[in-house]
Amino acid sequence: MTIAEVVPSLLSGLEVPGADNTLDLPAARRVVLLLVDGLGHELLREHADHAPFLSGLAGRDISAGFPSSTATSLASIGTGLLSGEHGIVGYTFAVGDEVLNSLTWSRAGDQHHDLRKALVPEVVQPHPTLFERAAAAGVAVSAVAPLAHRGSGLTRAVLRGSWFRGAAGFGDLALGAVAAVGKDRSFCYAYHPDLDTIGHLYRPGSPEWLLQLEFVDALASRIASRLPAGAVLVVTADHGMVTAGERIDFDTEPALWEGVRVIAGEPRVRYLHTGSDEVLEVWREFLGDRAEVLAREDAVRAGWFGPISPLAVDRIGDVVVAMKGSAVVVRSQAEPWLSNLTGFHGSRTRRELAIPLLVHIAQ
What we know:
Helix content is 34%, strand content 26%. By secondary structure, it is an alpha/beta fold.
């Protein structure tokens, strides 16, 4: 049961051909899917008293898929595929000679270098989206997300086929989502980013994060209270989060450099493009029980990425490093802002992979 199955399960109730309700979600003619960035199942369960509305909804947890990273999960929402098929294999990954930051669609480490022309989003992620399929079947499909996401590379890559409405805040997001399902056979994907941002800056479970969770709970409650009778609100997330423990700094550890041509990913999951077969053993010995370090072939064989396509293979790198516990591999010189964050995600722990799938049916 993964995030890739959420939208197909909802579209089955909207009579979209080929959409299977594998998650057994209620059928409805008007559907709002609210994705709260960073709302891990374990975090919600531990802090249920700060989210009484969400915690009172029927539901269960499912998997975000690997890597447990925003762009990857949003691509799974949009395509119904896991990372090994849609090819958005993380926060940063190599595409040819470039290392793409998939959130900003810019060169990794240089957000001013826009790559939308060099790496055309519709080519980097060429699979038809579920939103395109739904629109072709006559469903009114909308996406409500921050204003800055309009026309972004990631929006073009994974949300194309939806009518985009930019939201400037909580009220705009809530009312935009409700307005988007005013017609029969309508589907709205709504995205809220701030809980994740607060978790990165202050740590999940911090006073700042808990207050933001209360705001998110109110957001979901306000959407639910304004939906027409029979409409369905489904709330999910893209990943959970852990608080950083030990920080291993690639940029100041010469032992980790040897044979590494390109390092991509993010602090909880790293992709190593190598020029030496010794890299795997060096990293395994150095990290010990702080990480799972696998050759790409072994990670693929173990099913980490789901079914694999030629599109994704080279993007994964020759070696995959998935951190365990709370350790992170940072880059203090190449990624100073990212390296100084407090909360992280991307790896394979339950705290990162488990996400809620919650359902409200409007009366």
